[in-house]
């Protein structure tokens, strides 16, 4: 049933990746939501995020969307998992990384999905279509949230729509997924804390027929250009003629004055290119002081901004959406107390802080810092400079391309919901080709591992008594584990926490 326009369980301001993902997570649990979004169409000309992490792909798989995202990606995951450091797209190679961004994880036991290179608008389009197809979620484009009033029973939001229309919507909960300039964040009196990097960057999307055939380095998802005069990055948006590049240290004014000159400098040769779009930006390291109130929550860029190096920005927002979505669904469905919602900030804010710190470390050494004037000199000068530059690149940039410790390894260890040493994502394995352990987890909680252990029966009884949805998946010889709806482990028999299943389950759903 489509939610009533005047009263919805959850209102979501913002239909970017975080807002649409929140609606899909709620729908996954059968909870209705309304997403309001001013943009009628996704912004095809502003590709922005291009890295969908292995973890985000696993979460998309959970909603049945991973295959569709891969179908829509213009660069197949098998096309390349490499990043090449060069003196120019058509220039000399300095060094390269393989297995970047988890793109090499297809069929690997570590993850149910490999990462995927895909432009943000294509991801948003898949998410929009999934919301449109859902019986529980509605996306209303052309509408923005302009104000809100929160009381003990819910939130009254004021919306502005086409032709000056104004409407009030009453919601049980409001999610502010309305991006960096969040109206919701301002309305609840929360500020970002942190800093910005003052160095300007200038993104260009360009079309250059025939350019791909001239590139001497083979397929790569990033071509870094360590040219002292014009450092930056270049990459393909599709296997036709569409490319993106980032000119580092270039102001909006400089960039817009002659974008074709910048493209030619990064390519390192003459090229006929049509400029399709430009996008100036500066990196920011900002974290909301708080993630919300009793009934209003911030998700995605509204809660945190990090430099794009490492490709974490939008992926962190999908993680927020899943964490917040299952908790709102649990509270609205009556099997968890409202106190569960306090754990959203306790679990997700530290992940954002760690992500910001890691992205800032990646930003400490960019193309301008790595460029050496001898790289563009004679062959002899290049040969003399190359080993040291290659070593510096490998030392300073490896973590940017190989960050599975963060992407798959972030934990909620130590938060009140988790008992003992648990808190990480359930260790993945393939049961058969294409048959992921994660495909056997329920939408609510799952008890998995060796169900012949004596605690198993106690968990089943506790879940029935508490009304918590619990599914069972017998998977010996793995130790018994209680897995949350978000695939994180709430308790494992290997830990030495309290062994009273009812207490463990009650704690996992937010009872003090
Ligand atoms: C130039 C640039 C390059 C980037 N490159 C990368 C990258 O390479 N990798 C990466 O991971 N990330 C990158 N990012 C970051 C990435 O784009 C964001 O992290 C991501 O878009 C965040 O998603 P979101 O849904 O939280 O916010 P947004 O995508 O900002 O979505 C917020 C939505 O809210 C809507 N909205 C705004 N105000 C209101 C309102 N009052 N009411 C209702 N709706 C409202 C907006 O229209 C928008 O659709 C880049 C960002 C920029 C600016």
TrEMBL record:
Gene Ontology MF: a single term:
FAD binding
List its EC numbers.
Answer: 1.14.13.20
Q: What is this protein called?
A: 2,4-dichlorophenol 6-monooxygenase
Q: TM segments?
A: none
Keyword annotations of the record: FAD, Flavoprotein, Monooxygenase, Oxidoreductase
User: Which residues does the UniProt record annotate as the domain FAD-binding?
Assistant: 8-357
Pfam families, sorted: FAD_binding_3, Rng_hyd_C
Which cofactor does the UniProt annotation name? FAD
The kind of enzyme this is, by top-level EC class, is oxidoreductase
Q: Which InterPro entries match?
A: FAD-bd (IPR002938), FAD/NAD-bd_sf (IPR036188), RIFMO-like (IPR050641)
